[in-house]
Amino acid sequence: MSYYNILGLNREPFSTSPDPGFLYKSKSHMSALHRIEIAVRLKRGMSLLLGDVGTGKTTIARALIQSFKNDPDFILHIVLDPYHENRTQFITNLCRIFGIEYVYADDPEAIERYLFQKCVLDGKTVVLIVDEGQKLSYPCLEVLRTLLNYETNEFKLLQLVIMAQLEFLETAGKVKNFMDRVSFKYVLNPLDEEETKDMINYRLLHAGMDKDSYIFTAGAIREIYNYTKGYPRKINNICHHALENAVMYGKSKIDELIAQDVIKHDIRVMQSVHSLNDVPPIKELAAG
Fold first, then answer.
1. Least confident of 52-56, 89-93, 281-285
2. What is the rounded distance in angstroms from the CA atom of residue 136 to the CA atom of residue 164?
3. Average pLDDT of every residue of the chain
4. Burial of 278 (0-12, 13-18, 19+ CB in 10 A)
């Protein structure tokens, strides 16, 4: 039996999978989601969502797809790993994602014809969501810049949404006029302490916790916030291990001591990882 069943839950509350149903609607997350949706519906072109690792960008991407899934006028595609060494590989992959038959793999005009057919003749809106945008190479950004040039007098043919870490700005800044095409830019910040508490309880309630039962005490939440600094992915990881510890010790509540124990273990693990990374490579012995 899984630990969450023992605690009276019916689902895993702190999975690291980007399930939009578990998206805690903080002011920052909902503002980003709603404003990107507006930009897409108005066919503004490119939207850019920036944030550190673990702030919830991928979950917002999945939530954005959910927002349009029942609207037949929108065609959404997502690229989870956009790294390609050259433009040919990137264009080939985009053609595959769009379901385009093409003759020349290095010809973005095949995509232009597809966008014209879908967006002008068929009256649809094509949306391309690129996650992990910091992995986009210079040639790939050049391809996207070219695709953003395709437009009618009224709107851009491609609605592009890029989710990226902050270092994306350095690469994008090297592509002439690329950042000029950003119609909406938003930086996703970590949660504050109150939002951390609300996120933990929201996920537990969504997983089946009784609304009058609070598994994490105020002291535990304070410890978790101080350690994670409000980064959702790290919060999920610590809470997951805290629930496992509670079951192991026969506890029905996560108190300050359990939270501290889990955090100390996490620190030890991270220190071990850093120590392994600092070990110099073993040199081969010269034949003597």
1. 281-285
2. 9
3. 90
4. exposed
Cβ-contact 111, 91 below 8 angstroms: yes
Asked if residue 275 has pLDDT above 90, the reply is no
- Sequence letter at residue 255: D
Say yes or no: 112 and 39 in one domain. yes
Number of structural domains found in the chain = 2
DSSP labels for the chain?
--HHHHTT-SS-TT-SS--GGG----HHHHHHHHHHHHHHHTT-SEEEEEE-TTSSHHHHHHHHHHHHTT-TTEEEEEES----SSHHHHHHHHHHHHT---S-TT-THHHHHHHIIIIIIS--EEEEEESSGGG--HHHHHHHHHHHT-B-SS-BSEEEEEEE-TTHHHHHTTSTTSGGGEEEEEEEPPP-HHHHHHHHHHHHHHTT--TT--SB-HHHHHHHHHHHTT-HHHHHHHHHHHHHHHHHTT-SSB-HHHHHHHHHHHHHHHHHHHHHHHSPPPPPPPP-
Confidence (pTM): 0.86
Average pLDDT over residues 26-53: 95
Q: 160 with 195, same domain?
A: no
User: Does the pLDDT value for residue 47 go beyond 80?
Assistant: yes
Q: Are 80 and 150 found together in one domain?
A: yes
CATH number of domain containing 232? 1.10.8
Domain that includes residue 123, residue range = 27-188
Q: Tell me, yes or no, whether 159 and 238 share the same domain.
A: no
Question: What CATH number corresponds to the domain at position 168?
Answer: 3.40.50.300
**Residue 147 counted as domain residue:** yes
Angle CA 12–16–17, to nearest 5: 90
